[in-house]
Design a protein that fits this description.
Low-confidence stretches: 1-19, 165-171
Distance between the termini: 48 Å
Strand content: 25-35%
Number of domains: 2
Largest sheet: 6 strands, mixed
Shape: elongated
Radius of gyration: 20 Å
Helix content: 10-25%
Number of strands: 8
Bound molecules: zinc ion
Structural class: alpha+beta
Length: about 190
């Protein structure tokens, strides 16, 4: 069940899908890969439940493009491009931090019950099980979770925790860093 935000909906573009009910799913993913089809769309960040506790705010959208292809061994693959302006939380000062995420990844499709043939190639894409149709929301959320950095930190000079270089000019400012500075110019050692 997806509630679409009419604000974000205007960017939605998926020529072969007929409407919201069919959105964010790929019917017959194996055929999609074989025919090298492509689809794209936008998801609300708020609609991705497993991502929520990694975010400091869930306003905004995730844009994606999915392209079907077959690799050099004829195996069905999906190529994903994902872009989102995330609001993460800095590990040091716990304040919001803008994080523009762009991901390019590939997954290999296997049929339910078919054990994927494991190659020795460490660059081998991840296998996912796909049936009659494929839930793109789930897949995209997985990819985002895998693509998040392990350590989330403001750049030096923008972090309000233990930052000796505060006030230095020249550091790249983000709106959030500025806001954090305005709200709490010195959050440490002040009582
Ligand atoms: Zn910080």
């Amino acid at each position: 069940m997806i509630i679409f935000d009419s604000e974000g909906w205007k960017y939605y573009h998926a020529p072969f899908m007929s409407g919201p009910a069919a959105a964010h799913r790929i019917e017959d993913p194996f055929g999609f890969a074989r025919a090298a089809e492509q689809c794209s769309g936008q998801l609300m960040l708020a609609a991705l439940p497993r991502l929520q506790d990694r975010l400091s705010g869930n306003a905004g959208m995730v844009s994606y493009v999915v392209r079907g292809r077959q690799d050099e061994r004829g195996r069905p693959q999906l190529e994903l491009k994902i872009a989102a302006g995330l609001h993460l939380r800095c590990d040091r000062c716990l304040k919001p931090m803008e994080y523009p995420l762009t991901l390019n990844s590939r997954v290999l499709l296997s049929r339910p019950g078919d054990a994927p043939q494991d190659g020795d190639d460490p660059d081998e894409p991840e296998w996912i099980e796909a049936g009659q149709d494929l839930d793109l929301m789930d897949l995209i959320e997985d990819e985002i979770l895998l693509g998040l950095p392990l350590a989330v930190r403001h750049e030096q000079g923008n972090c309000s925790a233990g930052d000796s270089g505060a006030g230095r000019s020249g550091a790249k400012d983000t709106p959030f860093a500025k806001l954090a500075t305005l709200l709490e110019p010195r959050s440490t050692d002040k009582r």
